[in-house]
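A quick aside before the break. I want you to see a complete sequence-to-structure record at least once, exactly as it would be stored in a machine-readable document. Don't worry about memorizing anything.
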Amino acid sequence: MPFIGLLYVSESCLAPEDTASEIGLIVGVSSLRNAALDVNGALLFTGTYFAQRLEGPAEVISALMTSIEADARHRNVRIIDNAHIPYRKFSRWNMAYNGPSHFVERHIECIFQSPEETPLTTDVDRLIRIMLEFQRN
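That is the input. The structure line, written in tokens, reads:
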């Protein structure tokens, strides 16, 4: 079965006073759902933006993205990487999350400021490296 690695970024619609509880819900539900669906990944939240990496069976990732894109807690979902992968980089995590990552905001903002057709290889690689740090902690 081919595996897909997908990375998207989006803008948060969360009210500051609801952030902690909503992020807790997202991580809790995602961890359980991803375990049941054989999906791995990581989530970054900056207060302004989300970045999420998902790895798993192609048809499952596609169905998850339909649900994610309809979620009212964010807008302007932009898939910046969606490719077959030879192995999972996030195999230890159903959904890694390590608290708010304000220092990552400038990296995600660069993605939103670039035209959609612009190759974002360095931005994608940078975000994945940051997310991989979760596995080392």
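Two observations worth writing down. The chain has a mean pLDDT of 87. The helical segments are 19-37, 58-69, 105-113, 121-136. We'll return to this after the break.
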